[in-house]
Design a protein that fits this description.
Number of helices: 9
Shape: elongated
Largest sheet: 5 strands, parallel
Structural class: alpha/beta
Radius of gyration: 21 Å
Length: about 280
């Protein structure tokens, strides 16, 4: 039987906070932690899917979010997550990368193959940097490391949802930038869907998609590596990812022969240039 041990302390505002030693989570009472949260609660309530195999942690996260006007469903693995999507797709997913029998990175790939829903990944150790990098490159929108504050998790969820709404609003205000065609390929920015000349969908990671957008926004113009690195940053912590590696990966998706590129050409001493003209649809 698992025994939960908690240390309860009082913050300067008089609220009570506790750390659960079984999970590492830090929670707070509604009187203190929830006072500022509730006044900015989203309306209508967002629907969040929490994928976490640790029952205690899952319950803590679910209860905390529900107390702050967020509708929450939970899953412990692949099968339960699939059932949640069948009933009603959530607005955001928090996904643990360490899921017992299931690999969180595999679930991340599956999510991105069928949906552009925002995802916040959670990892258990600071040394698992490679998992965080791979998760972000697979299309995660953010990550948080355990043990984490429940208030920070809530703040990150709301920040990701705000960015999502801002992005949707920008597309609605600028509908002519919704779709474009280049070299027989077509990109639907609203759905983030890339189709090859045969109409077959080609999946892109978050970094590859950001790189393609940077090229499509400035076709037939030399772009420096520094510019492209800034345009493709998917998280503040990633600075050492070579832009050349990202270009190589994008070439493998677009080119018939990546060694003789017809889409992305290297400009010596400058960077890269996107060769074909881009037609806005």
């Amino acid at each position: 039987m698992n025994v939960r041990t908690a240390i309860v302390s009082t913050d300067r505002g008089g609220g009570r906070f506790e750390r659960d030693h079984a999970t590492g989570l830090v929670g707070g009472s509604i009187e203190a932690a929830g006072r500022s949260d509730e006044c900015v609660a989203p309306s209508p309530p967002a629907r969040v899917l929490v994928v976490e195999d640790d029952r205690t942690m899952r319950h803590l996260v679910v209860n905390y979010l529900e107390e702050r006007n967020i509708k929450v469903v939970s899953a412990s693995g692949r099968e339960e997550m699939a059932r949640c999507f069948e009933s009603d797709e959530p607005d955001l997913v928090t996904l643990d990368l360490r899921l017992g029998q299931d690999d969180g990175l595999d679930l991340m790939r599956e999510l991105r193959s069928r949906s552009d829903i925002p995802v916040i990944i959670t990892t258990g150790h600071r040394r698992d940097e490679i998992d965080r990098v791979v998760g972000l490159e697979l299309g995660a929108d953010d990550y948080i490391i355990k043990p984490f504050s429940l208030r920070e998790l809530l703040a990150r969820i709301r920040a990701v949802l705000r960015r999502r709404e801002t992005s949707k609003g920008a597309i609605q205000r600028d509908p002519e930038r919704g779709r474009c065609r280049f070299g027989g390929w077509q990109l639907d920015r609203r759905a983030r869907r890339l189709s090859n000349p045969d109409g077959i969908r080609v999946a892109l990671t978050k970094g590859e998609y950001a790189l393609l957008i940077a090229f499509l926004d400035a076709p037939q113009r030399p772009l420096s590596r520094e510019y492209l690195l800034h345009a493709t940053r998917v998280h503040e912590d990633i600075f050492d990812r070579s832009i050349d590696v990202q270009v190589l990966r994008l070439r493998r998706k677009l080119e018939v022969d990546a060694t003789a590129p017809s889409f992305v050409r290297t400009e010596r001493g400058v960077g890269y240039v996107f060769i074909p003209p881009v037609e806005q649809l």
